[in-house]
Task: structure prediction
Amino acid sequence: MGVWKKALSFYLKSFLFTWIWWLLPVLTGTRPITGKLFLALGGAMPLLTVLISLDGNRERKRFLIRCVDFKRISVSGYLIIIFLFPLSNLVALLLYTGGEFSNHLTQISSFVQNPVSLIPFLLFMLLFGPLTEEPAWRGYVPDLVREKVSFWQMSVISALFWALWHLPLFFMEGSYQQRTADAGFICLLTYVAAFFPHAILMIRFYDRYRGSVLSAILIHWSANTWGELLGIPEEAKIWRTVIEAVVVTILIVIDTIKEKNGKTERKSKRSPGEIQRPV
Result:
């Protein structure tokens, strides 16, 4: 089977396994509390599909190492992951509120008062989304087709399928996606557009850090966590998406210039059997 057929087959299986769980509460009118169980089960399907699709325990082990290997990522990569998303949310709030955004910090205030409650929150934000999605979208699929396409083509493919995968959630009662759609067309468009700068940054890190899956998990985790912590309203998210798109574009341009001048921080040491990804 060719790599494109294999990639498409993987996407179809991931979508099918997920959408079965997500469409059950939509079609049966299940209450939101039960729907959350279906939401979690469906969200886990991309990771399960990866584990099923990998050939043998040895390949699974090598793949899973890339999901936890923090040494692949450079210091500058970690700095981008740590600071990009809190800053983009804060600047978006400043632009939207004119500087009066203290009422959007209630979530952070509650964690300051009860720091222990931050632990289950962070674990939840890690498990539901980053840990179950990124091994598929920024791991297994790029492994198959990255060498067949340019960096920008891979980024667009990654973002489009990632966005499309969420489609049933727009019809699930009580879901974030349904609330976003109810907020209006601009909010819906902003939601879809936000997938692109994130996917672009993740694929760049995939290339830069020898197929690092952990980098994508951390980017996804940071983006989701700070969005929740700062309670940014739907109408302000257009600012956040524009800011992130501009910053990511600047980072890519700088990285490309450095690469042409031979000054990149590419982790060039390869594991046995690994191949250098084209930019």
Notes: The two ends are 25 Å apart (CA to CA). The first helix runs from residue 3 to 28. Residues 268-279 have pLDDT under 50 and may be disordered.
